[in-house]
Structure formats: structure tokens, C-alpha cells
Amino acid sequence: PQRTLQLDEIDSRIIKVIESKPSISQRKIATLIGVSYDTVRYHMEDMKKREIIVRKGNGRSGKWISRINGLRKEKCKMIKILFICHGNICRSPMAEFVLKDMVQKAGLSDRFEIASAATSTEEIGNPVHRGTREKLRQVGISTAGKTAVQLKKSDYGKYDYLIGMDTWNIRNMQRMLGGDPEGKIYKLLSFADSDRDVADPWYTGDFEATYQDVVAGCSGLLRFLGFSC
User: Fold this and answer.
1) Angle at the Cα of 223 (from 6 to 167), degrees rounded to 5?
2) Per-residue pLDDT tens over the stretch 35-94
3) Where does the pLDDT of residue 5 fall: very low under 50, low under 70, confident under 90, or very high at 90 and above?
4) What is the C-alpha separation between 165 and 211, in angstroms, rounded?
5) Residue 229 annotated to the active site
6) Which residues is 66 bridged to in the sheet?
7) Cβ neighbour number for residue 34 with a 10 Å cutoff
8) Is 46 a catalytic residue?
9) Bridge pairing between strands 53-56 and 63-66
10) pLDDT at residue 96 tops 60
11) Is the pLDDT of residue 215 over 90?
12) Do 82 and 115 form a contact (C-beta atoms < 8 A)?
């Protein structure tokens, strides 16, 4: 279960005291913040269970240590996402730049590292397809500087989520990455409660339909991740 870091007023006052006076007793904390000893003991036991505070040593030499700042940083660590398609010129760069735009508008850019890659070598070094560039230009999104790169086995350790556009991508990703032991591989539209593939506009020519699928998948991905920090 996920550790809750929520603090009520008494928790916060206790934290403030032990951060400045780590050797203080619970009875003295109660006197300082104006509540009963039993109340302090209850709140501190609860925070110990949630690993927000820990006790180092025993007796008068013991010290209280607050872990709240470190835990908040841990909970708010950067989320690393890699989108993957066959060539990395149509669908995966579209997803990369759509999600970058979404998190930028939400003020969350510092929480994410977002990139895209190909399973094949066919387009390596080539710029984003003109159809994707034009569709994203219509909605005010630039893909400037992006060129196709290939998925590497080391990407599995680098990224938290590796998201393919279709079933064939997923198969190739699992082969290239050596499986999915940590459950990091997803298909984009699964975040939109759909088993469908994102159609490849290289074949369909319908970049609008691909864009709508990408928006639905990226919006669902953000809902799946959630943000409480």
C-alpha cells in the first residue's frame, strides 16, 4: 500500500519541534504545543508506522528524526516515459510532443522526462514526418530538433514507462528489451480503456485520427499517474 504523507495540524507541530530539538521527550513536546501527552503519543506512533518519523537510540541519548522532506522528494521524483513505434517519425513523436505540451500547460514539466524511439532502424536520423509536424503545428506544438532514434536495451532501466502504439510494437519491444520483468511496458490506448492499436498514419494517411487517439491515450496516462505533490 502507498504510504500517506498527509499531516494534520498536530502532526505538523510535532514535526517542527523534533526538527529543532531531536532529543526532546514526548512529555515536553506535549507541553510545548499545548496538548495532552496521550495525544502526542498517539500522533507520534501513527507517524512512526507511516515511517514519517523514526527514533534513533534509546533513553536520553535517543533522537527523533523527521523523514518528511525526504519522503516528499521520493514521492515527487521525476517520471520518465518513452513512447515507441516502428519508425519514430509519426506516432511516437506525436505522443512525445503532445504529452510534453500537456504537462507544460499543467505546470508539471519538472516532473517528467519524455522521449520517443523506434523499434526499427529504417528512419534513424530522419526528422518527424511532415504529416505529424503539420498536425501538431495546427494545435500550436513544435517538434523542432527531433530526429528518429532506436530503442536500446538500456532504456528499460532508464524509463519508468515504455509505451508502444500497437501490438506489433509491444512484441518487438519485449524482444529488444529482454522481456518485461518489472511491468513497465504498456500499449498507449490501454490508458484510454481500449484494446485498439493507434493506427499508423504512414499507411492510413489520416493524421487527424492518429492525433485524436494520441490525445486520448496521453490524457488517460496522466489520469493513471495522478498528481498529489
Assistant:
1) 135
2) 999 999 999 999 988 888 888 877 777 899 888 777 766 666 789 999 999 999 999 999
3) low
4) 12
5) no
6) 53
7) 8
8) no
9) antiparallel
10) yes
11) yes
12) yes
Residues 6+ apart with CB under 8 A from 24: 17, 18, 32, 64
Residue 2 pLDDT greater than 60, yes or no:
no
Give the active site residue among 91, 101, 197, 218.
91
Is 218 among the catalytic positions? no
**End-to-end Cα, the chain, rounded Å:** 17
**CB under 8 Å to 156, separation ≥6 — which residues?**
162, 177, 178, 182, 184
Catalytic residue among 11, 85, 155, 166: 85
Taken as a whole, the chain contains a residue count of: 229
- Kindly report the pTM of this predicted structure: 0.70
The whole-angstrom distance between residue 126's C-alpha and the CA centroid of its chain comes to 28
- Residues of 72-85 as b/e, b for ≥16 C-beta within 10 angstroms? eeeeeeebbbbbbb
**Average confidence (pLDDT) over 192-202:** 94
Q: Which of 133, 200, 213, 218 is catalytic?
A: 200
CA distance 2 to 133: 40
